[in-house]
Amino acid sequence: QVQLVESGGGLVQAGGSLRLSCAVSGRTFSSYAMGWFRQAPGKEREFVAFITWTGSSPYYANSVKGRFTISKDNAKNTVYLQMNSLEPEDTAVYYCAADRSYRGTLALTAASEYDYWGQGTQVTVSS
User: What's the pLDDT tens digit per position in 21-68?
Assistant: First the structure.
């Protein structure tokens, strides 16, 4: 069974940085396309970032473009989300997700397109 475990969330002041990690169990991580989503209180889960199974073609939501960076380390079975210049509007629970079979380069931005999900990590940005 595939498990995704996020870490790295916390409380940070506006303008600060955090790096989220998502460790994925199993031997086939290198074949997974990965995404990050977030959900703020009272709002729907929204797409944040995507990276292909090869670790290329990163794609971002407009709201985080230029501030967040997604990366994938197949040797460590981990995907990262580096978040800089954080804003109070970035406050949310952040989830990583994996798609086990997608080989395309167009970003998967819908939550329904992913097969596996982590439990989430809270990010709170104070003003």
Answer: 999 998 889 899 999 999 999 999 999 999 999 999 999 999 999 999
Q: Can you tell me the distance from the alpha carbon of 34 to that of 30, in angstroms, rounded to the nearest whole number?
A: 10
Alpha helices (H) in 1-127, listed in sequence order:
none
Q: Is 115 helix (H, G, I), strand (E, B) or coil?
A: coil
Sequence-distant (6+) residues with CB within 8 A of 103 are: 33, 53
**Cβ-based neighbour number of residue 103 at 10 Å:** 10
Strands 18-24 and 4-7: antiparallel
Rounded to whole angstroms, how far apart are CA atoms 65 and 5? Answer: 24
